């Protein structure tokens, strides 16, 4: 969206992007609480220790970025002097004294995090497919 020329369409896309981010943050928060409350299945005993570690680290990082992305996005807006309207349900107001420097900092965080997050998602998908088609160890079935 950053490469789009300023227009009503661009601002509408930004508004939808921000609102969707807040909804995603709410859903991720509920999912995180669900994960804390409910019993986690143990990984298969025959799984190599490096894969167990990789699984735990990847899941931890996925949660970090699922929280970081929408939080940094909201901070970009409110610190930049823009409110976040969440599908006309409620509005997160802008701060009284905007901080362009902080908004830019969180913009950098948001952009870099997006690239890392996409990489982690790709890794997660690849690992699931590896377990399903190569190891045939039913890990993918446990997820579903």
TrEMBL record:
Q: Which family does it belong to?
A: Belongs to the cytochrome b561 family.
PANTHER family xrefs: CYTOCHROME B561 (PTHR30529), CYTOCHROME B561 HOMOLOG 2 (PTHR30529:SF1)
Pfam short name (any one): Ni_hydr_CYTB
- Report the subcellular localization: Cell membrane
One GO BP: respiratory electron transport chain
Q: Which GO terms describe its molecular function?
A: electron transfer activity; heme binding; metal ion binding
Keyword annotations: Cell membrane, Electron transport, Heme, Iron, Membrane, Metal-binding, Transmembrane, Transmembrane helix, Transport
Is Transmembrane one of the keywords UniProt gives this record?
Answer: yes
Give the CC-aspect GO terms. plasma membrane
Put simply, this protein is called: Cytochrome b561 bacterial/Ni-hydrogenase domain-containing protein
Membrane topology is: Multi-pass membrane protein
Q: What is its main location?
A: membrane
Transmembrane regions listed in the UniProt entry: 20-39, 60-80, 112-133
SUPFAM superfamilies xrefs: Transmembrane di-heme cytochromes
Report domain Cytochrome b561 bacterial/Ni-hydrogenase positions: 11-144
């Amino acid at each position: 969206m950053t490469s789009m020329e300023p227009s009503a369409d661009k601002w509408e896309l930004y508004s939808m992007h921000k609102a969707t981010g807040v909804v995603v943050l709410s859903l991720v928060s509920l999912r995180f609480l669900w994960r804390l409350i409910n019993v986690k299945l143990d990984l298969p005993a025959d799984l190599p220790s490096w894969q167990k570690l990789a699984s735990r680290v990847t899941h931890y990082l996925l949660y970090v970025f699922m929280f970081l992305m929408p939080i940094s996005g909201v901070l970009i807006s409110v610190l930049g002097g823009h409110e976040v309207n969440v599908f006309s349900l409620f509005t997160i107001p802008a701060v009284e004294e905007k901080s362009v420097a902080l908004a830019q900092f969180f913009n950098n965080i948001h952009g870099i995090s997006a690239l890392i997050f996409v990489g982690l998602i790709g890794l997660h998908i690849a690992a699931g497919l590896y377990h399903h088609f190569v190891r045939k160890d039913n890990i993918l079935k446990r997820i579903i």
